[in-house]
Amino acid sequence: MGGRVTTTVIDPATTTRTSDPSSASPRRSRRRGSGGGAGAYIVLIALALFAIGPLVAVVFNAFKNNAEIGTNPLAPPTSLSLDNFTEAWTRGDFATTMRNSAIICLGAVLGTCLIAGLAAYALSHLQVPGSGIVVGYLFLGSALPVQLFLVPLFFLWTQLHLVDNLFGLIVIYWATDAPFATLLLRSFLLKIPKDYTEAARLDGASDLQIARRVVLPLAWPGFLTVALIVALWSWNEFFWAITFIHDPKLRPVATSFLAFQDQHSTDWGMTSAAAIFMLGPVVLLFLVLQRRFVSGLTAGGLK
């Protein structure tokens, strides 16, 4: 009548260990992750070679003669000769044109930072009537193609005797760069706490003193970003420069390189050396300030 109790003893030596499917999943995910990372690196390397390859070819050809370039235009030079650089510097008068571009860049950067800084301060820290309409107008001004203003602007500049005038070209750069620079600086200034300005007003500071001593110094990453963008754009700008500057002694480096290329189109080595004169300063400037440039685009006015 009583129930029988059966005891089963399992020998650990004879048992087989069943594999847990979940234990292998991290290994497989790591393998998939490493494979995806390798593919991403391959794509990035290919894109880097695609972007840097033409510049490397230009540098190689600047040290070659035409015969060596015709034999193998992509190979490194067999010898380093500076003859192309000296000839291009003399024939293209790049000492004058690079000085003109430096003057234009400096004037464009200083004027744009001043105009955009004061406008951004007014839109972010002052009670400006219709500030939303002004911001919308700035967005519209940044989006419109500049070719729409060419004919009336050329007629006006002719009447004001600003054609073949570096200052006239700098004023055009102020007008075309200021909307974007104002919007960028406004985004920095909006992140500055209003407590700073209120404390300065309690101390009796005027709006101009608050802007100059309190608000604008806190937005230096934004000013550095604006200065770098304006400098790169004004150095490489071609459309306004070729329209309003006709005197060879006043040409910036972008238009002078076009004239040099037309005159020496068959001398590839000398043309490559002239291209390095044009590209070298902006590439070095960007390489030196690239970290601050990227942080300025992503960071706010305060850390």
TrEMBL record:
Keyword Transferase: no
Any one GO BP annotation for this protein: transmembrane transport
Predominant cellular place of this UniProt entry's protein: membrane
Biased composition (Low complexity): 1-26
Family to which this protein belongs: Belongs to the binding-protein-dependent transport system permease family.
PANTHER family: ABC TRANSPORTER PERMEASE PROTEIN MG189-RELATED-RELATED (PTHR43744), SN-GLYCEROL-3-PHOSPHATE TRANSPORT SYSTEM PERMEASE PROTEIN UGPE (PTHR43744:SF8)
Protein name per UniProt: Carbohydrate ABC transporter permease
Source organism per UniProt: Kribbella capetownensis
Taxonomic placement: Bacteria, Bacillati, Actinomycetota, Actinomycetes, Propionibacteriales
